[in-house]
Amino acid sequence: MRVAIAGAGAVGRSIAGELLENGHEVLLVDKNPSSISVERVPQAEWLLADACEITSLDEAALQRCNVVIAATGDDKVNLVVSLLAKTEYGVPRVVARVNNPKNEWLFNEAWGVDVAVSTPRLMSALVEEAVSVGDLVRLLRFSQGDANLVELTLPPDAALVGTRVGDVAWPTDTSLVTIIRGHRVLTPAKDDALEAGDELLFVAAQDREEQLEQLLSVSRTDTAG
Q1: I need a labelling partner for 200 at 20 to 30 A (CA). Which of 44, 54, 100, 181 fits?
Q2: Running DSSP on this structure, what letter comes out for residue 219?
Q3: Coil, helix or strand for 13?
Q4: CB 178 within 8 A of CB 201
Q5: Three-point CA angle 42, 46, 52, nearest 5°
Q6: What is the mean pLDDT of residues 40-51?
Q7: What band does 25 get if pLDDT is binned at 50, 70 and 90?
Q8: Distance of CA 121 to the CA centre of its chain
Q9: What percentage of the chain's residues is helix, strand, coil (to nearest 5)?
Q10: Three-state DSSP class for 65?
């Protein structure tokens, strides 16, 4: 997979390193000469250019990329890069970094963004995820389809404890994608029984989140009553 990353700062270089370790081709683009640190990520391709200019993106051969990541520290730049990548070059997947949470509402399909990653929101979500049991925590927003990656840790008294995955009447537009049980990561099968303390990860439409949380938080005492 070929990936172009706009922004060769600490964030962009870190992403590039991870992708290269996983066997992908990576191009780092930055207009600041001081950011062109080839020795830090020698396996990547480097381009000194303004990623907001069509001529630069032509030089980067963006049409050959499977993914474009807008990872600069400027939200305006990230939006422009995302829009150009999607509309001018038809890049299948565009991921954009959100620096200011107040701008998060802009990072959507209209601006060419498939996945928006807000570092402040993600950090707060991870804190919530670590301490919350029985509450739905939004980890990541997908622009297409208005869906989110959400997590809930199943409380010990949840009515669904012991219920098989295939027997649960999950809300429409939701999908249980992973069960984290202790140190194990499980791909859910219909015969798997849910256990107390399971971390359940769903991709769910935003308007179904409340319904999903209600389903998972119902306790045995509620059903008995």
Answers
A1: 100
A2: B
A3: helix
A4: yes
A5: 150
A6: 95
A7: very high
A8: 11
A9: 35, 30, 35
A10: coil
DSSP H or E segment with residue 203:
strand 199-205
Alpha helix locations (H) across 22-114?
54-59, 75-87
Confirm if 174 and 204 have CB atoms less than 8 A apart: yes
Question: What distance in Å separates the CA atoms of residue 199 and residue 93, rounded to the nearest whole number?
Answer: 28
The helices-and-strands tally (H runs, E runs) of the chain is 6, 11
Mean pLDDT of all residues in 175-182? 91
Identify the CA nearest to 82 among candidates 55, 46, 57, 101: 57
What count of residues does the chain have?
A: 225
Give 112-171 pLDDT, tens digit per residue: 999 888 765 554 544 454 445 667 777 777 766 578 888 888 888 899 999 999 999 999
Backbone dihedral angles phi then psi of residue 35, each to the nearest 5 degrees: -85, -15
Q: 200 with 151: CB under 8 angstroms?
A: yes
Residue type, 186: L
Answer whether 24's CB lies under 8 Å from 1's CB: yes
Residue tagged 């930055």 (tokens): 30
Task: Give the whole-angstrom CA distance, residue 155 versus residue 216.
Answer: 9
Beta bridge partners of 116: 96, 141
pTM: 0.64
